[in-house]
Amino acid sequence: MRPTERDDAADSVLGKAFALLGSFRAGDSAVSFAEMARRSGVARPTAHRLLHQLATHGAVELSEEGVRLGMRLFEIGQLAARPRGLREAAAPFLSDLFHATGETVHLAVADGDDVIYVHKLDGRLGPELGSRVGGRMPAYCTGVGKVLLAHAEPDRLRTLLEAGLTRRTPRTVIAPGMFMAELERIRQRGFAEEHEESTVGIACVAAPVFDAAGAAVAAVSVAGRTHKIDTFRFAPAVRTAALGISRSLSRGSY
What we know:
Elements: H1 13-21, H2 33-40, H3 44-56, E1 60-63, E2 66-69, H4 71-77, H5 81-101, E3 104-111, E4 114-121, E5 136-138, H6 143-149, H7 154-163, H8 176-189, E6 192-195, E7 202-210, E8 216-225, H9 231-250
Antiparallel strand pairs: 1-2, 3-4, 3-8, 4-5, 6-7, 7-8
Helix pairs in contact: 1-2, 1-3, 2-3, 5-9
């Protein structure tokens, strides 16, 4: 590394390498060097050099078609303790919820202003949703996100609202007063609803998962087509699953 490059800067070697890895999108098979450089904002010569270095460590694979994510990243990702332990604790309860409803079941955790889906069971007859394991969505417009924000620290909510909420669909709640009032209702009822706020035609109901210290560490949801999802009817089942996972977490660590 050159003396002028800071280790913690976005334009450091490490920062550029992560920018390149983060430029892959869902559905990508192989991406050209030029496209990866464009997406990441890394200069082409630097991108070419770093990608070859990443390939020597198995982080990416290079072929005539372009660049693919390597199996080494998959191996390392499976070792991440928090999502692995959470998935193991949640698995039987999510399976029961899936068989009881037949709709898509999610388990998600907060990451900054977003949620990341750590587990998903696709509904048998439901629509294809944009969510995926490892994918992220803005927290403010999703059921799992809103239920986690309802239990977030006030400073985090203040920062989120000061940055402004973006309307993703005609039904996205973006007015600060209405949004905060909804979070209060979620705290009182113990579950969150979403009706076409993140995706047109999709509704869901979500409930929080608490750890032994009483912190909301994850959320469970059932999602499907708006005309098939009766959020009040599904809410007790979702809350029961979330409570079961919470009890499981309280007996150990993850």
